[in-house]
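Progress note, project year one: complex with flavin mononucleotide.
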Amino acid sequence: MRLACGAALLNLRLALEHSGVRPVIDPPSPLAPPTALAEVRSGGRTTQNPAERALYEAIPRRRNNRRPFQETPVPTADRHALVTAAQREQGRLHVLARTELDPFAELVHRAHRAQMDDERFRAEMDHWTGRERDASEGVPAAASGPLPEPQDLWVVRDFSGGRAPTRVAGKDFEREPLLTVLCSQHDSRTDDVRAGQALQRVLLTACAHGLSSSVLSQVPEVAETREELRRMLGGSLHPQAVLRFGYGSPTPETRRREPEDLLLE
Ligand SMILES: Cc1cc2nc3c(=O)[nH]c(=O)nc-3n(C[C@H](O)[C@H](O)[C@H](O)COP(=O)(O)O)c2cc1C
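Model obtained:
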């Protein structure tokens, strides 16, 4: 939830800059309600630069693409742009090396099994996924990928409520996915919000560069596998999100809530 709020905060920063306001972000003041994560104030007028404007314009186009991607590798310059985007928000984006993919896939399966053994997790997952196309919240079945199959080493979750389209023969997920781990330097509430802003800057940068992306959260969500991933990456950073990039086919959009529904007087 804090990552998602951080992602929304980055959108807000970009939108304010777009309308000529320089946002100043502070930790919540002691007087703020305990659930407050940040305070946003006006720091005067500003003009958005073209690179930031490109990210602002990517906000409505960015979507999670759970479908198979092409085998075409992502060019080095684009990978570099993703790594730099994370750094801009004090995050670190670790690109998994080819040799790290198998041990990582093993972690995904372990995390997935742990979550599927948890009745409450299953109930929550069922509640939020596999929805009708025009549902105002949650993930519509149409935005899920094909059902995972045993040969898919790292695609395990079904977001379609069992309604995913049957897979076209031979159209498997890419053999060598570009998988990255977004990490924070520390592990506090503030770091989660910061990591959410890094998450969104990386995803918007990908979108602005014509890349598709998806989020795979099992490993960082389960304490044990999160710790193992942390050790796998050298032990000094905290894994927050796993992101996959590539070139995907168009995927339907997930509806947004109306901004008015989210405002409290
Ligand atoms: C912190 C975070 C974790 C997420 N983890 C997953 C995940 O594990 N699998 C997945 O398919 N989508 C994941 N998502 C993506 C959301 O399901 C998605 O953003 C939401 O359905 C809205 O769709 P959109 O991104 O296409 O707008 C995650 C999103 C956030 C912010």
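The chain has eight helices and six strands.
The CA atoms of residues 188 and 194 lie 10 Å apart.
No further modelling is planned for this target in the current period.
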